[in-house]
Amino acid sequence: MATNGGHSPLEQFEIKPIIGDWVVNADGTRYLPFHTLTNSSLYMLIAIAGVLIFLSFGMRRGAMVPGRWQSMSELSYEFVANLIKDTIGSEGRKYFPIVFTLFMFVLFANLLGMLPYSFTVTSHIVVTLALALMVFIGVTILAVAKHGLHFFSFFVPPGSPVAMWPLLIPIEVISYLSRPISLSVRLFANMLAGHTLLKVIAGFIAPLGVFGVLPFALITALTGLEILIAFLQAYVFAILTCLYINDALHLH
Amino acid sequence: MPQFDPGVFATQIFWLALTFIPLYFILSRSLLPKIGGILEQRQRRLDDDLGKAEALRKEAEAVLAEYEKAHAEAEARAQAAVREAQEAIAAETAKAQDALSETLAKQLAEAEARIAQARQEAASGIREAAAEVASAATERLIGVKPDAKTAAGAVDAAAGD
Questions:
Q1: What are the chain B neighbours of A96 within 8 Å (beta carbons)?
Q2: Which of A228, B8, B63, B152 could anchor a disulfide with A15, C-beta 3.0 to 4.6 Å?
């Protein structure tokens, strides 16, 4: 896609090797060996370092009366804890660490992507799909472990007439199987679209000369919106994970 | 789009696992229990303080109730004392008044008796003097001195009509 000398709005999504290099196949396609350190891997490392620094520096004193930073760390903890309490209830405590990790990882990856010249880890479908599949498989295993074969009653809407089952069950199965797709595509598409839009509008600034002020003002507003979306999508990812866990625990 | 290049899938999945899994373990084993512990400790402390405040409030209320009770008792005692004093004063006043009126009545009776006596004395003195005057006048007129009894009888007869 980046054909016009590296100024395509999609250039920001390119994976570039930092340590290691492309390997060319016999058919001319190329790939990166799995252990290659790329810009994506670098930003994943920065994201988890960010999460760990944010939490451990906030908690380094563990004061009874928290300072600003500690308050923010506690706020993130209580935010996710309340999310779980509201959607799953007290049984959800066990799943707090994984939901919190997902939330913080996605949040930091999204927010890091807002820095100019940075890379957005969550703008790649393969990353969001991997996270969504992890949630999906984990939730399915949880449901089968808890309910056994009774789990399959989940695909039969309660109170529906038997005559409707041949229609309803496939719909329910498809809707269940499409969960990881909707979960991953939602996050990926939001990040992709937002960042692409920013770059497209930014591309208008220089050619318009003095009138470039207009797209510049727009991009300033959109940056604020994108930061909101970065939070919102992390929240949506976490709350949907909670809802899926709740379904797995209670079926209907 | 770079997102759909299968050549970059493996490395991203590998690094995602390499970063996400350790993050999960560090958070769930170390950082989250630490934050949770501090929050719980703070909650306990708050509950403790609230409990203490509640106990103090109850104590203050008990003290207030006791004070009010003591105050009411003191007031009642004071009122009783005032009433007693008033009664005592009223009784004393009544007694003093009785004594005074008795004295006055006695004095009045004495005075009346004295007046009656004086009147009687005066009345009998007038009779004797009249008898003496009558006898002296009779002697001077006729040279005969009537005895006292006759004179007195004449005076009585003259005063009698």
A1: 32
A2: B8
Task: State how far residue B43 is from chain A, nearest Cα, in angstroms.
Answer: 10
Query: What is the predicted ipTM?
Result: 0.90
Q: Please indicate whether, in this complex, the C-beta atoms of A127 and B16 are within 8 angstroms of each other.
A: yes
| pLDDT tens figures, A222-236 | 999 999 999 999 999
What span, in angstroms and rounded, lies between the C-alpha atoms of B29 and B23? 10
Question: What does the pLDDT average to over A82-88?
Answer: 94
Q: Does A183 have pLDDT greater than 90?
A: yes
Domain span including residue A65: 11-250
Q: Is residue A6 part of a domain?
A: no
CB neighbours of B61 closer than 8 A, spacing ≥ 6?
Answer: none
Nearest CA of chain B to the CA of A122: how many Å?
A: 10
The pLDDT-based confidence of B161 (bands split at 50, 70, 90) is low
pTM: 0.74
- Residue position matching structure tokens 């890091």: A112
Q: Between chains, do B3 and A105 touch, taking CB under 8 Å as contact?
A: no
| pLDDT band for position B160 (cuts 50, 70, 90) | low
The answer to the question of residue A63 being in a domain is yes
For range B52-67, the mean pLDDT: 96
Q: Which residues contact A49 (CB under 8 A, 6 or more apart)?
A: none
Contacts of B1 in chain A (CB under 8 A): 1, 10, 13
Q: How many CB atoms lie within 10 A of CB A222?
A: 17
Kindly identify which residue of chain B lies nearest to residue A44, measuring between CA atoms. B19
State whether A55 and B42 contact (CB < 8 Å).
no
What's A38's DSSP letter?
A: E
Crossing angle of the two packed helices A96-112 and A68-87, in degrees rounded to 10? 120
Min CA distance, A209 vs chain B (Å)?
30
Domain count of chain A?
1
What amino acid is encoded at B141 in this protein?
L
Q: Tokens standing for A129?
A: 């799909």
Q: Which residues of A touch B22 (CB under 8 A)?
A: 48
Please indicate whether, in this complex, the C-beta atoms of B27 and A100 are within 8 angstroms of each other: yes
- Average pLDDT value over all residues in chain A: 91
A146 in a structural domain: yes
pLDDT greater than 70 at residue A21: yes
The H-or-E segment that residue A160 falls in is none
The answer to whether residue A172 sits within a structural domain is: yes
- The verdict on a CB contact (< 8 Å) between B32 and A77 is yes
